[in-house]
Amino acid sequence: MKDSKRLFDGALLSVALAAVLISVMAVIGMVTRPDTVVVAGGADDSGAQEVRAHISLSEFAIEGDLRVPPGDLVIELHNDGGIQHNLQFDGSEISPMVNSGDSLEFDIGNVQPGEYEIICAVPGHSAAGMTATLVVDPAATLEDAGAVHGGHDEDTDWAALDEMMLESIRKFPAETEGVGNQVLEPKIAADGTKEFELTAAITPWEVEPGRVVDAWTYNGIVPGPMIQLDVGDKVRVHIQNDLPMGTDIHWHGIRTPNDMDGVAPITQDLIRSGQDFTYEFVAEKPAVGMYHAHHHGHVQIPNGMFAVMFIGEMPLPRGQTISGTTIPEDLEIAQEFPMVLNDAGVIGFSLNGKSFPATAPIVVTEGDWILAHYYNEGLQIHPMHQHQFPQLVVAKDGIPLDNPYWADTVNVAPGERYSVLMHADTAGVWVWHCHILTHVERDEGMFGMVTAMVVQESDS
Ligand SMILES: [Cu+2]
């Protein structure tokens, strides 16, 4: 990485920009009605009235009719989010899984006055916000509510939604505790081996202002510490497992001996809670790799145990003309950085472990070239769109492309990495976000997978 200055040390990541104007994206999303109403049907054999409550599930909220009269409760569940959710009533019965956009009826039966906890039982979702209290109150009103399906009704306060959206955007960039992707410095052993120390543990992580979650982390940060290597380096990574469960580390996109591939019990014993293990391999080839848990990856990875490992230098198409644009022979990269995508667990929709407005802006000067590496450590695809600057895809999964191509939106599937070169040739604040709109907006405003390139005017 001779000619690149990486944006990893957190200095630029925390650049405080007092007021950043962002072009406003279309207001979309689902609006649930206030917590007042239910539909009363006819009485059943027992004489109890049927009570229909409309509940909306989304990332990461449970909204809708949260105050209902007693009776035979039927919850009409609608998934207004982008991923699967379900509903668990009062710590017992769990509804079938509801796909994004789908609805179903969840029959609870007779409920007496009281307060009942309702949560999404998908791991991590209640901790991320999908928890609510359903109040059964004889004084609750009975009237035809109309459906939450589609999200809006005549009671929607559109002007209030306008203000919430604008207010949410004005908060960018917001300060939070903790910066992910910090470079992990090795200890150099007598034989030249680069030795790295990792501790896996559950530690607090502030995803967005005021939302501190119990993240599953390497060395307390999300994404975990970044490891930078040269081709030929001998590497030793020692991990101490302070998690409540076993773990292992898979080196995704990196060649290793089989017994270092991190798949318990096939290639090694599980590193049980309280135990440690040392991985050892030679960095054979250049890589835009990542490392993450393999054992119970569905819990450990979305909750934060993912990190970046770079080996060697990414060759760039200097002097090459691609679709009419010539990349300078003397191209210099002003900033190179990973953009790690996640969409689940306690971290939720995020870029480099932070949700908008806590995502870091990329601050550059007009004329700069940047090299970004998308990493998808989540469970869904994310089409990453930059408002102004075309993205030259120069490598897929760290493998340089013989024919790089320009795109304004780059679709990144789970496990994939795309390396993109951009020329920041226009001053301004240029939004950069996932284009699945429910990954970036909700009724309360903008959140999740949004940041911006802040291109400052050049003095010259
Ligand atoms: Cu997305």
Any ligands, ions or cofactors bound here, and which?
Answer: copper (II) ion
CATH homologous superfamily assignment of the largest domain:
Cupredoxins -  blue copper proteins
Secondary structure tally, helices: 2
Radius of gyration: 24 Å
The rough form would be described as globular
- Which structural class should the secondary elements be placed in? mainly beta
Segments where pLDDT lies below 50 for 5+ residues? 1-44, 144-150
β-strand percent reads: 35-45%
CATH architecture grouping of the largest domain: Sandwich
- Count of spatially separate domains: 2
* CATH domain class name of the largest domain: Mainly Beta
Count of DSSP strands: 34
In the CATH scheme, what's the topology name of the largest domain? Immunoglobulin-like
- Helix share of residues? under 10%
Mean pLDDT: 88
Outline of the structure:
This protein has 460 residues and is mainly beta.
Key phrases:
5-stranded mixed beta sheet, 7-stranded mixed beta sheet, disordered N terminus, Immunoglobulin-like, mainly beta, 460 residues, binds copper (II) ion, 2 domains, 4% helix, single chain
Protein topology:
Layout: E1 4-6, E2 39-43, E3 49-58, E4 61-64, E5 67-68, E6 71-79, E7 88-89, E8 103-111, E9 114-119, E10 131-136, H1 158-170, E11 187-188, E12 194-208, E13 211-218, E14 227-229, E15 234-241, E16 249-252, E17 276-282, E18 287-293, H2 297-300, E19 306-311, E20 321-322, E21 325-326, E22 333-344, E23 348-351, E24 362-365, E25 368-376, E26 382-386, E27 391-396, E28 399-407, E29 409-412, E30 417-424, E31 428-434, E32 441-442, E33 445-446, E34 450-456
Parallel strand pairs: 1-22, 3-6, 5-10, 12-15, 14-19, 22-25, 24-34
Antiparallel strand pairs: 2-3, 3-4, 6-8, 7-9, 9-10, 11-12, 12-13, 15-17, 16-18, 18-19, 20-21, 22-23, 25-30, 26-29, 26-31, 27-28, 27-30, 31-34, 32-33
The structure holds copper (II) ion.
